[in-house]
Amino acid sequence: MILPIIGYGDPVLRKVCEDITPNYPDLKQTIANMYETMYNAYGVGLAAPQVGLPIRLFVIDTAPFGEDEDLSAEKQTALKQFKRTFINARMLKEEGDEWGFNEGCLSIPEVREDVYRHERITMEYCDEDFNKKTEVFDGLIARVIQHEYDHIEGILFTDRISSLKKQLIKKKLQNIMEGKTHPDYKMKYAAKKGR
Question: 108-126 and 83-105 as β-strands: parallel, antiparallel, unpaired?
């Protein structure tokens, strides 16, 4: 089932999310709905707060990045094959140089900015069957994970840009909050609640 994506300004996007247990109600269905919602909006990642759930869960499928012909065949293949569910994730380590990449977010449509993130990360998380894992990720995969991980920590990519750039996008953010933005997917806007 395709869920509405929560727009910028909603308090759920600012919550530090809670861990869940294997008996979380309808977990498999929630994960399936999140993937369906993400694909419908042409995203590569989606975190639970973006569909109104303040829980430590996010899904990623970097296949669209694998179409980039500027990348090596090896990197294209890795990106095309990376699909993962992260439950109760914890960032153990961020390493390497910070590098810039133009990021966007389904909760902040029509806004894109360069964000600097570490090139390599170590994550501890559970998969959809609650198998605990510790893995190292790098490159674009690490970046997508860091972006989604920020969501479950109540951080948005716009928090990671300069104050000048924040000033420049202020009107766009206001428009999102007021429901004046119309992406080609279903959204729930902060100012339109209860109407």
Answer: antiparallel
Q: Which residue reads 């993400």 in tokens?
A: 38
Catalytic positions: 148
Biggest CA-to-CA distance, the chain: 50
Q: Tell me the per-residue pLDDT of 122-139, one tens digit each, with 9 for 90 and over.
A: 999 999 999 999 999 999
Integer Cα distance of 189 and 10 in angstroms = 7
pTM passes above 0.85: yes
Q: Helix (H, G, I), strand (E, B), or coil: what is residue 81?
A: helix
The tens digit of pLDDT for each residue in 145-168 reads 999 999 999 999 999 999 999 999
Question: In this structure, are strands 108-126 and 132-138 parallel, antiparallel, or unpaired?
Answer: antiparallel
In 3D space, the residue among 37, 13, 4 whose CA is nearest the CA of residue 156 turns out to be: 13
CATH number at residue 99: 3.90.45.10
Q: Which domain holds residue 83?
A: 5-192
pLDDT at residue 194, as a whole number = 44
